[in-house]
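Chain A, query sequence.
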Amino acid sequence: MLYSQAWTSSLLSAAPGEEETASIKYRHKSIRKALIAMFNGKCAYCESKILHVDFGHIEHFRPKSKYKNLTFTWDNLFLACGVCNSAGNKGVRFPLEDEGGPPINPCVDNPSEHLRFIYDQNSGIATVGFITKRGEISVELYGLNRYELRSHRSNFVKKLYVLSKFAPTKPEAKALLDAAIKNDSEYSAFARSLF
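Chain A, predicted structure.
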């Protein structure tokens, strides 16, 4: 980001009461537009498409309230849905190593090294499990198995599972399955791990 250093200096030297004004520059529409493109209009954490129902949050992976010097650092800015980024989920929490963290950074870490994507054919439920302690912390922190998300994701994965049965003989089914594993598809990490 072109102005990152100047904005950070301004924020760090802001007088009490002026910090909020100095910190909101990260909300600039060009930054939002770049993050939407970078994350394909999906939440960085739960992979739900969000732009059809919300503007999305410009999220600070390391919370700006605790890491002011990273407020404008590009690698610390994500697009997130309002639920993953809510106080009930990640919000301003950021567990450190002694607490089982840090949480998975979807831009740096390979989620499949920490998370298991499980589809139970009998129940039709698509659950995110964990392999590592960081995975466990991330599932809890981002709320990756909250009821509404798991229900929506399960419906999506259920359709992919049915498509996978037809993919060997039906080019249309194969094309839909191929599209589901592309980065711009909702729940693509889950789809890639299964198919």
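Residues 4-80 form one domain. The mean pLDDT is 90.
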